[in-house]
Amino acid sequence: MDNPDFHSGFIAIVGRPNVGKSTFLNRVIGQKIAIMSDKPQTTRNKIQGVYTTKDAQIVFIDTPGIHKPQNKLGDFMMESALSALKEVDAVLFMVNATEHRGAGDNFIIDQLKNVDKPIYLLINKIDEISPDDIMPIIEQYKNALEFKDVYPISALQGNNVPELIDTLIKELPNGPQYYPADEVTDHPERFVISELIREKVLELTRQEIPHSTAVVIESIKTEESLLRIRATIIVERDGQKGIVIGKGGSMLKKIGTLARKDIENMMGNKVFLELWVKVEPHWRDKANLLNSYGYRK
Ligand code: GDP
Ligand code: MG
Ligand code: K
Predict the structure, then answer these.
(1) H-helix or E-strand containing 80?
(2) How many helices (H) and strands (E) are present in the chain, helices listed first?
(3) Cα–chain-centroid distance for residue 280?
(4) Residues 120, 84, 170, CA angle at the centre, nearest 5°?
């Protein structure tokens, strides 16, 4: 059964918040597994997306943005990102073509100096700049680290993404197929469901609710042809609870409707989603609460 020419391995995606890591992962895997938003630090856990062809399998690790920790949740995110780098065969370092190299990029570059795996520089969002502006961006980074290769890409539109994937596959060692071909993530569905709900909270409440939201899946039950999911949205203050619920429950209803559609798409099943909102002051600084909300080491 084993194909001796099969290539496989683990690849981490690092980059400062909002450069497009989750967008890239979703494009490659072709299914919505890592949540996307225009707010930084949306991704808090390692999410493995699995890309399988008949000759190869790449297991992608979408790391939380590496940044200077501000609280216990920040510590967790940082450790989670750095530990991911020790387990991989290659690293994709993604930067934003529309911004200058900044402190956030430099912080990551410093971390990557200790990583002895091939590092690929991805210049993302080239759809937003003119071709003439690509070289000057590369110039800003080319001496920062020893890059195996440089790829200007658009994670959003797909430019150069297939070429990059071909290169990565060729460079990966011979190895086994770690996951079944139809498996796109090894995360428990529970986690992905909570991320889909959290994404809607962030999207719909915009400025009002910062990163003080967690979503806990209380239960998932199969009832005849539908899945009944009970979830609690955790916020830090009463005012935030009011915003999430909205006038007469209108906001919570919107969040629920959009999240349900995404969950149904992912699960291929009809879903009944029951949402609750709970205030838990300072949950981000309480280790036991972090644990119970799923941010485990
Ligand atoms: P992450 O924090 O690195 O995971 O970034 P996300 O994938 O969540 O993307 C952050 C924002 O950048 C979202 O609004 C994306 O739609 C946008 N974005 C990502 N990739 C591209 C791209 O190639 N081109 C453009 N124009 N926008 C992009
Ligand atoms: Mg992300
Ligand atoms: K983001």
Answers:
(1) helix 72-86
(2) 9, 9
(3) 25
(4) 40
pLDDT for 186 equals 60
- 160: DSSP letter: T
Tokens linked to 35 = 């949540």
The residues that bridge with 119 in the sheet, in sequence order, are 91
Measured distance CA(181)–CA(34) in Å, rounded:
19
- 209: which 2 tokens? 């609710």
28 lines ligand 1 (CB under 6 A): no
Q: Is the ipTM of this complex over 0.95?
A: yes
In the reported structure, the alpha carbon of residue 76 is separated from the centroid of ligand 3 by a whole-number distance in angstroms of 17
Tell me how far apart the alpha carbons of residues 259 and 269 are, in angstroms, rounded to a whole number: 13
Ligand 1 centre from 18 Cα, in Å? 6
Per-residue pLDDT of 183-203, as tens digits, reads 666 666 777 788 889 989 988
* Residues 6 or more apart whose Cβ sits within 8 Å of residue 57: 6, 7, 8, 50, 51, 177, 178, 179
Neighbours of ion ligand 2 (CB under 5 A): 21-22, 42-43
CA of 41, closest atom in ligand 1: 2
- The reply to whether ligand 1 has any atom less than 6 angstroms from the CB of 63 is no
Angstrom distance (rounded) from CA 40 to CA 109: 19
Q: Which one-letter amino acid corresponds to residue 111?
A: Q
- Whether 256 is in the pocket of ligand 1, judged by its Cβ within 6 Å, is no
User: Which residues lie across from 50 on neighbouring strands?
Assistant: 59
For the stretch 32-60, pLDDT in tens is: 666 666 655 555 556 568 888 889 999 88
pTM over 0.80: no
Q: What is the pLDDT of residue 290?
A: 66
- Return the pLDDT at 1: 47
Structure tokens at 28: 């490659």
Establish whether residue 128 lines the binding site of ligand 1, counting it when its CB lies within 6 angstroms of any ligand atom.
yes
Could you tell me if 80 and 67 are in contact, meaning their C-beta atoms sit under 8 angstroms apart?
A: no
